[in-house]
Specification:
Blueprint lengths: L1 H19 L1 H4 L17 E12 L5 E12 L4 E7 L2 E8 L4 E4 L6 E4 L2 E11 L9 H11 L2 H10 L7 H5 L13 E2 L7 E8 L2 E4 L1 H6 L4 H5 L2 E2 L6 E4 L8 E11 L6 E12 L6 E17 L14 E6 L10 E5 L10 H26 L3 H26 L1
Parallel strand pairs: 7-16
Antiparallel strand pairs: 1-2, 1-15, 2-3, 3-4, 4-5, 5-7, 6-7, 8-9, 9-13, 10-12, 11-12, 13-14, 14-15, 16-17
């Protein structure tokens, strides 16, 4: 109980310090940690195509176009288009990043009519975490260099988290991208890598129980950092995992810090004849045009009111932690250092403190029901003996 009280006290101190330091963050300027040897004034406007070809289990082909405005410190704004319609806006100043569908994700009906609803994902890594994988692969092409990728992997492990794999419940927490090869130019452009999945998948306890697994075996499994799923070994796989993607490039764009053509093949099934992985699908990216520009890189415009902005914000606990969900009504994006961000940070601290206090209260909540049962069990024999004694006296 002393340790529980000490933990609560420590948490209160941390919360107090966090709130007190909020005003100091207002004047803090985000450091651009990623850089290349090119002039820091250089900005590039890039247009390209990204497609997905699926061969197994059926033939399918989808193609999108994208634009990217980026500088050599890897600040960027990107847009993904489907049939010339902008379906995704992404932005990063290398410290705060976010994306959303500028057309909205639905609407809500109230007394004033339909109000468009927008879901915004914010995160601390420059890599477009949880965005469409079309945009993620395009980002790798534009930002694929040794300094950028090493920083992403080291500061936001595992670094490259592909959205398609999350949908398949693979253990993305422990995926790796070994064997990365870079060219020998001043840009150190990424030429190839193998993306490897560990020999585990993610399953909930209910899923395992419904399929008859024993509780003792389930309890022996490791859990995810959030504790919301079990890390389950995959049968008939090598202990150290298996290759999922193979990324290769075929052309470089001279004078620019990125390649002009790249392909990422998906290895999913084992060939029944030779046991080698089969290529079941692949993403292809091609740069159609690239030019240096003086255009400034600005966040996209906020959707105009009336609108409902619903945020999943990973900046406070990291990409492996819980997102902070909230409805946002501000008139500017809540980037680090803004008043909106500081208010959100204070609210997040208060929320964590409330959850901690509530959890501790429930742990120490007096078990009145159990006490009543114990009392009855202890008192009944005493009453029985007392009754017999009085009977004997009479």
């Amino acid at each position: 109980m002393f340790l529980s009280g000490l933990r609560i006290a420590s948490f209160i101190v941390i919360a107090f310090v966090s709130v007190c330091n909020i005003s100091a963050e207002t004047n803090k300027v985000a450091d651009n940690k990623i850089s290349t040897s090119v002039s820091t004034n250089a900005k590039m406007l890039v247009k390209g195509k990204v497609s997905l070809t699926v061969k197994i289990p059926f033939d399918n082909f989808n193609e999108y176009t994208f634009t990217g405005l980026l500088d050599v410190q890897w600040k960027y704004s990107m847009q993904l288009f489907q049939n010339e319609t902008n379906i995704l806006e992404a932005y990063s100043d290398t410290k705060d990043s976010f994306f959303f569908n500028p057309n909205g994700d639905g609407s809500m009906v109230d007394g004033k009519g339909n109000i468009p609803v927008y879901f915004v994902r914010m995160y601390p890594t420059p890599y477009p975490f949880k965005a469409s994988q079309y945009l993620q692969v395009a980002w790798i092409v534009l930002n694929g260099n040794k300094k950028a990728l090493n920083q992403v992997v080291e500061e936001y492990p595992p670094g490259l988290v592909f959205s398609d794999l999350e949908l398949e419940s693979l253990n993305w927490y422990e995926c790796t991208a070994p064997n990365a090869v870079y060219d020998q130019s001043e840009y150190e452009r990424l030429l190839s890598f193998t993306f490897r999945s560990p020999n585990h998948t993610l399953k909930t306890g209910d899923y395992l129980r419904e399929r008859g697994f024993e509780e003792e075996w389930i309890d022996s499994l490791r859990k995810t950092p959030l504790g919301d799923a079990y890390i389950v070994p995959i049968a008939r796989k090598e202990e150290n995992g298996y290759d999922v993607y193979l990324y290769t490039t075929s052309e470089v764009l001279e004078g620019f810090p990125f390649v002009s053509k790249a392909k990422m093949e998906r290895h999913l099934l084992l060939d029944p004849i030779n046991g080698e992985p089969q290529v079941t699908s692949w993403y292809s990216v091609s740069i159609e045009s690239a030019e240096k520009t003086q255009q400034s890189i600005e966040p996209p415009k906020l959707p105009v009111s009336p609108r409902m902005l619903l945020f999943h914000d990973y900046r406070f606990e990291g990409i492996q932690g819980r997102y902070f969900d909230y409805q946002y009504e501000g008139n500017e994006w809540p980037l680090s250092g803004t008043e909106e961000y500081l208010n959100l940070k204070a609210e997040h601290v208060r929320k964590l403190l409330a959850e901690e206090m509530n959890a501790r209260f429930n742990e120490r909540k007096f078990p009145w029901g159990t006490l009543l049962i114990i009392s009855i069990v202890l008192v009944l024999p005493f009453l029985f003996l007392l009754k017999n004694k009085n009977g004997n006296l009479t």
